[in-house]
């Protein structure tokens, strides 16, 4: 079966203007030629540090910013070829939930008005049924009917995110892009909202593209995971492969940041030095070479291709030319 979403060679370059004539003098290569797919009913996460291009990817798929190049095939159709009007209609099937629900909810509208407006824009239910539908939506996300006439500021952060979810789901989308959707919430509230998202996924056969910097959150929700660094995909895999046998040094570094009990694992931690380089002039060769503990000469000039490591697992690193590596061995050798 064809994937619900197929992203091919997506690029998002933002021009930098400068000089006395305000000409484009360079580009921020926020997303630089990435390809991946998302199957129906799956949760695929994109993870990486801030500035790696994960949010830009989500926005480019929805054309909130027009991508520079590539294809975004959704249900067999290239979204980048649609007219603005056609794209607006498509938004019924592709919704986004943002990190800060407060910023995206109109403070002067009651919850009922917010939800009725969403229903009206896409005309999903006849006017007469909207009142009833609002109540169903509130109940669906664990709120109740008597909260419908309150304003966003009268709710807690977690409740506001539930309203954001209700609004996104009101139009019965197929794909929901969650951009740091639980990042602003307390850890205990995070778990509740993640569990709600999972429950709704099962009930409504939703597909999620889940964007997050938090490996702990990603582990909780994902079927497959995409790791990005400086605009590139460095590793992709099913959750089990990625967490139990991460193969790109950068993925291992990201995972090293989450606490583990296993003492053997502790010894194999990779602690990153320095900051993420600028996406304006990213390092030549492997973009991770300025921070990689295993850097070799060729890494500085030659960009590593993706190497297939398992049925659903691949990573872009020269160390993986002959298949997966044993990091406990490798780390002993460099110490
Ligand atoms: Fe490190 Fe080289 Fe692999 Fe890049 S290609 S991650 S620099 S070993
Ligand atoms: Mg972001």
From TrEMBL:
PANTHER family: TRANSPORT ATP-BINDING PROTEIN
Gene3D superfamilies the UniProt entry points to: P-loop containing nucleotide triphosphate hydrolases
Similarity comment: family membership: Belongs to the ABC transporter superfamily.
Keywords assigned: ATP-binding, Nucleotide-binding, Transport
GO molecular function: ATP binding; ATP hydrolysis activity
Keyword Transport part of the UniProt annotation: yes
Record domain ABC transporter: where: 5-255
GO biological-process terms attached to the record: peptide transport; transmembrane transport
One Pfam family recorded for the sequence: oligo_HPY
Superkingdom of source: Bacteria
InterPro entries on file: AAA+_ATPase (IPR003593), ABC_transp_ATP-bind (IPR050319), ABC_transporter-like_ATP-bd (IPR003439), ABC_transporter-like_CS (IPR017871), Oligopep_ABC_C (IPR013563), P-loop_NTPase (IPR027417)
Native source organism of the sequence: Caldalkalibacillus thermarum (strain TA2.A1)
Designated name of the protein: Dipeptide ABC transporter ATP-binding protein
